[in-house]
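Deliverable D2.4 — example input (structure tokens):
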């Protein structure tokens, strides 16, 4: 085999190997579609000037193969005051390490706060843990309520 033929053959082998590595190293981006439940891990803090620490919360709904969330049920308890999730369903996503919940809305002691919250997670399929730290939501109703509040919570997402 001539030097040119050997070089061409070696180059082809390297190109084929690189393509094989690139194809096999690409992670699957699909989530297992279906129902999920997200359970509060620790406490949720809602701070609108006076912090309320909640000891329990559950979100549930569906996740699509692309990580899109539809949150159809939410509960919050153990806050010292009644906190009521509003305006369900909420939407969201788990995408490239970023967890988002859009349409998030909660009401307590005559004040309602709403907005989008985002945080981080690791993993490529459920179960994953998503942490939302000091996410600001705006006042949407209520007299004598601060203009915004912050929400801090960690949820464990799992297939239902």
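Example output (designed residues):
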């Amino acid at each position: 085999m001539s030097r040119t033929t050997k070089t061409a053959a070696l180059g082809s082998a390297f190109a084929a190997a690189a393509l094989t590595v690139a194809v096999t190293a690409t992670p699957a981006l699909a989530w297992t579609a279906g129902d999920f439940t997200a359970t509060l891990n620790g406490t949720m803090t809602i701070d609108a000037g006076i912090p309320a620490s909640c000891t329990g919360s559950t979100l549930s709904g569906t996740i699509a193969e692309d990580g899109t969330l539809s949150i159809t049920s939410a509960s919050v308890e153990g806050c010292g005051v009644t906190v009521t999730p509003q305006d369900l369903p909420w939407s969201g996503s788990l995408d490239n390490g970023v967890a988002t919940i859009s349409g998030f809305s909660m009401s307590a002691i005559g004040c309602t706060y709403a907005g989008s919250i985002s945080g981080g997670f690791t993993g490529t399929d459920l179960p994953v843990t998503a942490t939302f730290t000091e996410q600001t939501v705006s006042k949407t109703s209520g007299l004598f309520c601060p203009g915004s509040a912050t929400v801090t919570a960690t949820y464990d997402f799992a297939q239902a």
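Residues 3-28 have pLDDT under 50 and may be disordered.
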